[in-house]
Design a protein that fits this description.
This protein has 2 domains: about 200 residues, Rhomboid-like (Rhomboid-like fold, Up-down Bundle), CATH 1.20.1540.10; about 80 residues, no CATH class. The chain is built from 14 helices and 4 strands.
Length: about 325
């Protein structure tokens, strides 16, 4: 048996049969199992950081008072209440590319945070969902900022909300994640850090931002909280792929007739997951799932797809 065949049997066996059984020839013809397969060299995190860095350089160049037209172009990218009232909806996204050119620390801390957290998160959820989470966090946090500042006015820039969204999703995808802060010699559970941040941002929102007072360090609690909420919604209803039925806290509070419907849908989903075995599509379905694992990671699988892998393992163990 050659090396490629051994590698194929080993990987599939690890995915389908943790007890040591193998799934012969299931993925031996897949391109990513061969030596010529090339992994993407540029991650989505690199593209995002590069876009933010390039935008900051453009701000430094075009921000000169001598370039009036260029200044107006940058103004069209800033999120303001006036821009939303004029239906300049693109500012809900473009504001995340801009940062305060008067303070280099603003963009530096944002980029360092995105790199530190993003390099751990992107392999877990895949590049496409990583980009989708980044875009959704900017838009959602922008809407939350507008809701708080609708009568006050003002302007907002920065991608800090995306960092908060990344933190929330990382803590949900990998609950055992710990972080060591450079000014503390101990490690903290990421979930505990998020709870502390949630409390601090909520207090700043209530006592500073809503009353219209200046927030310490120039922070934007409404935007940060919007990013955290976007991250939580992303994990519950996008990453898990299970919709409302995946949220146990909601299902426990639902009336009995709604919970009965939920179980009925789950029964139909379970029967649908076993249907491919009767129709003879075992290899096609498992191949599709293996492709998804390779592209987006094991954590992107839905409950139905995980059940398909379990059923495949049980079916093979009988032969």
């Amino acid at each position: 048996m050659d090396c490629d065949s051994q590698r194929s049997r080993l990987v599939v066996g690890l995915v389908l049969t943790p007890n040591g059984d193998t799934f012969p020839t299931m993925a031996s013809d897949r391109t990513y199992m061969r030596n010529e397969y090339q992994r993407p060299r540029t991650t989505m995190l690199v593209w995002i950081v590069s876009a933010i860095s390039a935008a900051f350089v453009l701000q430094l160049i075009l921000g000169s008072p001598k370039l009036g037209a260029a200044n107006r172009m940058l103004d069209e990218m800033v999120l303001t209440i006036g821009s939303i009232k004029q239906w300049h909806l693109w500012t809900l996204l473009t504001h995340g590319l801009l940062h305060d050119i008067q303070s280099f620390w603003h963009v530096l801390f944002t980029i360092l945070g995105l790199v530190f957290v993003g390099r751990e998160l992107e392999p877990l959820i895949g590049s496409r969902r990583f980009l989708g989470l980044f875009v959704a966090s900017l838009v959602f946090s922008g809407l939350c900022w507008c809701a708080v500042h609708w009568s006050q006015g003002g302007a907002h820039i920065g991608a800090g909300a995306a960092l908060f969204a990344f933190l929330v999703v990382l803590s949900e995808v990998n609950a055992s994640t710990e972080m060591t802060l450079f000014f503390f010699p101990v490690s903290f559970r990421l979930r505990h850090i998020i709870l502390v941040l949630l409390a601090l941002e909520s207090l700043a929102l209530l006592f500073y931002e809503i009353p219209g007072a200046g927030v310490p360090l120039g922070l934007s609690p409404s935007s940060h909280l919007g990013g955290m909420l976007a991250g939580w919604l992303f994990f519950k209803f996008v990453h898990t792929g299970g919709g409302w039925d995946r949220t146990a806290s909601f299902s426990l509070s639902l009336p009995s007739w709604l919970r009965f419907k939920s179980r009925k849908r789950s029964t139909r989903a379970a029967s649908a997951s076993t249907a491919p075995w009767r129709s003879g599509n075992l290899r096609a379905d498992v191949d599709r799932i293996l492709d998804k694992i390779n592209s987006h990671g094991f954590g992107s699988l839905s409950d139905e797809e995980k059940q398909i892998l379990d059923d495949a393992k049980d079916l093979l163990s009988k032969h």
